[in-house]
Amino acid sequence: PENTKLASIEEGLKFCRQFVQRLLEFARMSPVDKRNHDVADMIDSVTNFFLPVIQSKHAKLVTNTAQAKGLQVFTDRNLFETVLLILLSNALDAMPAGGEIQVSCRAILHGRVEIAVRDSGTGIDPANLARVFEPFFTTKEPGKGTGLGLAIAKNFAVEHGGSIRIESEPNNGATAYLELSLATGIAQGAA
To answer: Looking at beta carbons, which pairs linking 105-112 to residues 24 or more positions away fall under 8 Å?
Structure first.
């Protein structure tokens, strides 16, 4: 019993250390390097990077960025890619038995671009759907998530003059929609 207690305490300390590290990363203001970036190129880069992980979980990835070719957003590429990885990771976690993730991107009204990440997973209970963007809210079991991913994604969207929302029905998958403003005017020509 003593060894069991020590192992339990050690596991708890490990979780706390990881939790504090993520909290510090969330709170830390790191330098942002905003430039114009092609949305389709960034999405393709992230999905190609994450594809082996998706395939290892017996899931399929369908990417459609044809409508976004040439569209640019003024963003920090690392932040954008981190947010997309969060959305892909959440989609994959929602499909423990495998399934399909669809990523698409298109121009929408008012000079904006919409990136959608849809999964065929378990969906989100309506009571939880209202809370998914709250920092530290998670439905994952202890040690599997801190509830910071979607809070980071929302913070990113707001800082870029955009928005993020999730639509879902239990047992019918979920779709995360990230909307950002397209780069326009003089900034469009800047590299």
So the answer is: 105/39, 105/40, 105/43, 105/64, 105/65, 105/67, 105/68, 105/71, 106/67, 106/68, 107/67, 107/68, 107/71, 107/182, 108/179, 111/181, 111/182, 111/184, 112/162, 112/179, 112/180, 112/181, 112/182
**Phi, psi (degrees; rounded to nearest 5) at 61:** -120, 130
User: What are the helix (H) ranges across the chain?
Assistant: 2-27, 39-56, 77-93, 126-129, 149-159, 185-189
pLDDT one-digit tens code per residue, 58-116: 999 999 999 988 999 999 998 899 999 999 999 999 998 999 999 999 999 889 999 99
pTM: 0.80
For residue 46, CA distances in Å to 25, 53, 90, 112 come to: 21, 12, 14, 21
Q: What is the DSSP letter of 141?
A: P
Residue 15 confidence class, pLDDT cut points 50, 70, 90: low
